[in-house]
Amino acid sequence: MTILGIHNIAFTLAGGGVSWLELASVIFGLGCVILAGRNSKANFWVGYFYNILLFMLFYHQHLYSAMLIQPVAFFINAYGHYRWSHPHKGEESGGDAKKLKVRRLDAKGWGMAAVIVLLATMVWGFVLTKLGTSWGVGTFEPDPSPWLDAFSLMITFLAQILSAMKMLDCWYVWLVVNVINISLYLSAGLVFMPLVSVLYLANGIWSLLTWNKLYKKGK
Questions:
Q1: Is 198 a member of any domain?
Q2: For residue 136, is pLDDT > 70?
Q3: Structural domains counted in the chain
Q4: Cβ-based neighbours of 80, under 8 Å, separated by 6 or more
Q5: What mean pLDDT is predicted for residues 1-22?
Q6: CA–CA distance from 169 to each of 58, 101, 208, 209 (Å)?
């Protein structure tokens, strides 16, 4: 029996079991991104609980990059919570001077982001190929998709940082993250999460359109 039975099966789908922990993660995750897409600061409060739930879920599935991102994501979430309410001079929303307006990442910023993501993926991907095989044998199970897991980690970091800075471009990155996550979840044997990622994709498209309108209005 696990703590509070959170790993117990809530229901089955396509022959696979969906645990209470996976179900709770989905509910909080969808709530977080829907609120963010609607430009609501309440998304950060939901995000804190979402990070905790995902940490437990990914540990159970041996997705170590996805697991280890959660403590960092928690602090990025806290940074975004602060930044959205404390804009620097020239970043104020046209509708409310106490709110951060939606902005865009320039070409130089995209170039730097691409290089950092590529280098970080190479380093972390190498670590994951060793974890559970050459390193930590008996402590960690081998990662089923180390390179995809590493790239997913780094591009998710990028999406979260851009979201915290309220950059419109974050939604383009989130769309890529969701497509990658579908493959990653399937390789880990998850059934429910890939289906939910389709909902994330739909919300990402809607949020992109919503934020684009805010960007044009200077809000």
A1: yes
A2: no
A3: 1
A4: 44, 160, 163, 164, 165, 166
A5: 64
A6: 27, 13, 8, 11
